[in-house]
Specification:
The chain is an alpha/beta fold. The chain has two domains: 2-204 and 326-351, P-loop containing nucleotide triphosphate hydrolases (Rossmann fold, 3-Layer(aba) Sandwich); 210-322, HprK N-terminal domain-like (Udp-n-acetylmuramoylalanyl-d-glutamate--2,6- Diaminopimelate Ligase, Chain: A, domain 1, 3-Layer(aba) Sandwich), CATH 3.40.1390.20. It is built from 14 helices and 17 strands. It has helices spanning 15-28, 53-61, 68-71, 91-102, 128-134, 152-162, 176-192, 212-218, 244-253, 266-274, 290-299, 310-322, 329-342, 345-351, and strands at 2-8, 33-36, 39-40, 43-46, 49-52, 74-75, 108-112, 138-144, 166-174, 197-202, 210-211, 222-225, 233-234, 237-240, 258-262, 280-283, 303-305. A six-stranded parallel beta sheet has the order 2-7-1-8-9-10, sandwiched between helices. Homohexamer.
Length: 357
């Protein structure tokens, strides 16, 4: 039996969809697949026990059945007040026991990581590095393109720590204009340093899209006009803080973006809506005037009013879009398809001495 830990250099890298794609592919090849997520961060109560929401979704999609508290023995909520920093229970022992139970009669165990493999869970002694060593797992890293780069320093650091127990890395959310540099420069460099690269999953904006109604809730705002189109999809955003002439030029080049703009900037609000903006987010707890609200109804553009300033809202928007969970079936299927097309399964089989197709 082989155990594979799917970890990442940072949070929200795409571990869940990679794990689902791998699990479904291994099942298709006739393997008995087991799954667990040792550490979770999104508590969900099922009957009388707590588990991790993401882990429960993945288990259902893989057609597996394990009690949520065994599936995810340790829950570390993001909310600091709900986190027991002084908890002295042996988290590592609980995880080992759950792993031993789930892995019986399995050909392969897929173990999902939480947050960063190097840091998340350190205060309980259950960070990803410690877990992979304790459970005797091989590690597959997922590294997501962020801030105009892939995190090759972290990849090399993790490789140095895990040695031969690191299978390699899969790059995720890679924009087309960066893929050539990655193929010509980064991948040869990593492979020269004994880091196998299993592929690059291309960027697909729809995977991080969010509905206007959910965005309003996540931003703790309210839709004040254009409610009939609250299900419109937002893929990214633009900050409207410039002069009208410059804003019009930039906006025409970047259509289909939600626009974050001060509640007192009527000029930019109207320009954005006329330019095809799918959603307007007005900041500073300022209600737009009647002209703006009437036009939003005519054009079917939801207007979300929030209390925070433009900069704060922009930072929250970035986090929200980066952390969008793959809850809708259409997104799950699309994400799995992208991973399947990019992932070199034959290379993985060679690394694990499995028969390839």
């Amino acid at each position: 039996m082989i155990g594979i830990y799917i970890g990442s250099t940072d949070a929200f890298a795409g571990k869940n969809i990679v794990l689902m794609a791998l699990g479904l592919e291994m099942q298709r090849r006739g393997m008995r697949v087991g799954y667990m997520k040792p550490v979770g961060s999104i508590p969900k109560r099922v009957d009388d026990v707590f588990g991790d929401e993401d882990a429960i979704v993945i288990q259902e999609l893989l057609g597996l059945e394990t009690s949520p508290d065994i599936l995810t023995p340790v829950i570390i909520p993001d909310n600091l007040r709900a986190t027991t920093l002084s908890d002295e229970t042996d988290a590592l022992a609980a995880i080992q026991s759950a792993y031993d139970t789930i892995s019986k009669d399995k050909d392969v165990m897929l173990v999902g990581g939480c947050g960063s493999i190097q840091y998340t869970g350190t205060h309980r002694g259950v960070d990803g590095i410690t877990l992979s060593k304790q459970l005797g797992l091989k590690t597959l890293l997922v590294d997501r393109y962020r801030r105009n780069r892939l995190n090759y320093d972290a990849i090399l650091n993790i490789k140095n720590t895990l040695g031969d127990d690191m299978l390699g890395v899969l790059f995720n959310d890679v924009p087309e204009d960066f893929s050539r540099d990655a193929e010509d420069i980064l991948i040869p460099f990593l492979e020269k340093n004994d880091v196998d690269v299993f592929g690059m999953v291309p960027r697909d904006p729809m995977l991080n899209a969010i509905k206007a109604s959910e965005l309003a809730w996540r931003l703790k705002g309210k839709i004040i006009s254009g409610n009939s189109q609250s299900q419109r999809i937002i893929q990214n955003f633009l900050i409207g803080t410039m002069q009208v002439e410059n804003f019009m030029t930039y906006f025409r080049q970047s259509a289909n973006l939600a626009t974050i703009v001060g509640g007192d900037r009527t000029d930019l609000q109207l320009v954005a809506m006329e330019g095809g903006c799918p959603c307007l987010i007005v900041t500073g707890n300022i209600t737009p005037n009647e002209i703006v609200r009437a036009r939003s109804e005519q054009l079917g553009v939801p207007v979300i009013q929030v209390s925070e300033d433009t900069y704060t809202v922009a930072k929250r928007m970035e986090l929200i879009l980066n952390s969008q969970k793959l809850r809708e079936l259409v997104k799950i299927k699309r994400g799995a398809e992208l991973v399947d097309n990019a992932f070199d399964y034959n290379k993985l089989c060679q690394k694990l001495s499995w028969k390839s197709e």
